[in-house]
Amino acid sequence: MALPFSSTDYSEPGQNLSFANNISNLQTQINTRYGALELGEGSTVGDVSVNLALGSMMNNAALIALNGADLSGNADRVVTTDGSGNLSWTAKGGGGGGSSYTFNPGSGFELCHSVFSGDGLVNLWTKQGMHLNTTLSSLSSNSNGTDLEVFFRVVADGFGTAQIYFKGFNLNKTFDSTAVNQSFTSGSEQYKTTEAGSYLTWPGGAVARPNTNAWKWVFSNSTSNYGAVTSLVFDTNHMYGIGFGTGNGIKYSAQVWVKTS
To answer: Which of 147, 189, 198, 239 has the smallest set of CB atoms within 10 Å of its CB?
Structure first.
């Protein structure tokens, strides 16, 4: 299989790495001292990239390449990890209708974005999510997003899974890390924790952003209440609230869904 880059498409200072035309040589030609291989758009590493940790993951280079029917798995199977860099094919679990993903928070929702332990906390009001080719501002019929419903599902290492629905929030501010030292409210913030549940008045009142841009996504009313079960905060390296409290160092993965119809 010819790889979609040449010897000049990836470099380190003072180094040029030469890639052979088959994936099996990838492990032997990249020394693990580089730590990771980052593949970007075109000849430079751009905004959209794939970062592959080396070491044990390189034992799965053929699987990552998905080169041929014998490597790409059978129909309706997905790639999973054991948490130690080893990948394997497993049967895809069942899920809700209307989506190709194995989880769906309800009718009309579409997966917008995924983040992993702080990586990818972009301003979804102005930037497209990795799964949805539009911005929240484009989906909203007003200038602040109070008409949109968003859903968060978080899987935290050692804590399990938690979820929450929000609507009536000023999404132009909650996702904007530059809106520091501000409080804002639409007066109609609501939340629920299950699809079948009814929306309740959000007890936080006004959303409050502290005087730091380290808090990327904020659905909390203060720096002392951000661990509440009805709050949700993602900072540069951690996440808090919705049942996880204020414990530091939580490794997590999170999905952001938005109701589009």
So the answer is: 198
